[in-house]
Amino acid sequence: MTWEEMDLMPNVLSSIAKAGLKRPSNIQKLIMKPFKEGKDVIAQTQSQKDRTNTLAIALLQKLSATASTQKYCQALFVCSEGINPQRVHEDLQVWFEAAPGLESILLSSGNTGDRSNDDDSDGSEAPTDKQQQYHSVLSDAAQAKQVVITTLGPLMEVLKNDLLNMEAVETVVISMRSNELVNLDAFKQFWAILPRDAQVVLMTGKIQPQIQKIKAHHFRADAAVRRADELTLQWSEHYFVDIPSQQHKQQKHEHSEGKGRGKGEESNDQESAVVVQKDHKWEALMEILGKNPEISHIVILTPSQSLTEALTTKLKERKLPVLSVWSMADKTEVALQFNRPERCILVSESDLTDNLDLDHSSLVINYEMPRRTWQYISSFGPFGRSGLRTLMINFCITEDPVQKQMLENLESLYDIKVQEMKVL
């Protein structure tokens, strides 16, 4: 399917050409028709950029014809801070240049007039300032605001103070991590006030069982469910590097030093063995990085923030170009830096890779084997989406029966072959 076959308006096609999108992505092919038909849509795609482009095209198609005459809020775009509403706002504004009069406005903690940090303010007037800021924007009939972009906090404040007419909203777009859909009380309240006639479009990185429950309760019966790029491991090559166990290193050390030492000395040897084991992983990592200078974009996955910090520090000491992800708030800016053409190494906790929008990820290294099989595809899967070939290397202690069994389980469950890679 081509853009021309989608029956889009000329100004939309012109914007698509200007953006350099030569052909529709999978998600664009799948949801454009139900969106134009006014159906509710639940769509899954890993790429945040793809999500934003898709929604921008759909909204431009829907709103541009009446942009000069209908200036009130017709579409509500709700997203999480991790998805960066500021960036979404900026991207939509670029797309909306093709339709004179079509504007998006951003309601977030960054533009509410909050003076709580000013020297002459004790912070008590901050809520009033926010309300005034929202009121001036939303009550001005002359100001175009066809699309309102917001996060949950500002949205609930606006609704609490009757500053947004939800009955006039025709389309509600939700772009969030799947766990936020269920766990946030504010979002549960939001479901209750959604206008019944509004079209609801949910875009997420992964369609989990909870979302099926949300569909049953909050979406119309004919809602379209579209999966553009399920997490997959089929596009990747999988290897493991055998890391000697701590016990093995300790026995080897004791054999070389001989017997007959005191209790305290044995304790010191045990500590030394732990260090050797950890250094062995570091040795393997340095060997891989040193022998593959042509690989420009590398991701190292860790199980904890402390290990992420430690590896980041050591890589910086080696004068290597390194970034790290320690929290949800880091993700958008880090992705922007990582996607530049220069060589870069990204160190991240495994559970923070969901929805991490990376354009390049030639090599992914799992610094420690996951404890459960589902964690493997959750952390590695995003890097193998949409046919992107990725080399995946696991640091594995095969003398540990649990880790060895894990390798066998991965091969069986995901129908992949994990081959040994000789590094040291």
Describe this structure in words.
The protein has 424 residues and is α/β, with parallel strands linked by helices. The chain has two domains: 4-115 and 123-227, 3-Layer(aba) Sandwich (Rossmann fold); 236-420, 3-Layer(aba) Sandwich (Rossmann fold), CATH 3.40.50.300. It has helices at 10-18, 26-36, 48-63, 85-96, 126-138, 152-160, 178-183, 185-193, 209-218, 246-257, 263-291, 305-317, 331-338, 373-380, 401-414; strands at 41-44, 75-79, 104-107, 147-150, 171-175, 199-204, 224-227, 236-242, 297-302, 322-325, 344-349, 363-366, 390-396, 418-420. The strands form two sheets. Strands 3-4-2-5-6-1-7 form a seven-stranded parallel sheet. Strand 12, helix 14 (373-380) and strand 13 form a beta-alpha-beta unit. The longest helix has 29 residues, at 263-291. Residues 110-127, 248-260 and 269-277 have low confidence and may be disordered. A motif (Q motif) lies at residues 1-29.
How do you describe this structure in short?
By secondary structure, the chain is of the alpha/beta class. The chain contains 15 helices and 14 strands.
Helix-strand layout with pairing:
Layout: H1 10-18, H2 26-36, E1 41-44, H3 48-63, E2 75-79, H4 85-96, E3 104-107, H5 126-138, E4 147-150, H6 152-160, E5 171-175, H7 178-183, H8 185-193, E6 199-204, H9 209-218, E7 224-227, E8 236-242, H10 246-257, H11 263-291, E9 297-302, H12 305-317, E10 322-325, H13 331-338, E11 344-349, E12 363-366, H14 373-380, E13 390-396, H15 401-414, E14 418-420
Parallel strand pairs: 1-6, 1-7, 2-4, 2-5, 3-4, 5-6, 8-13, 8-14, 9-11, 9-12, 10-11, 12-13
Helix pairs in contact: 2-3, 3-4, 10-11
Biased composition (Basic and acidic residues): 253-266
Keywords: ATP-binding, Helicase, Hydrolase, Nucleotide-binding
Domain Helicase C-terminal: 281-424
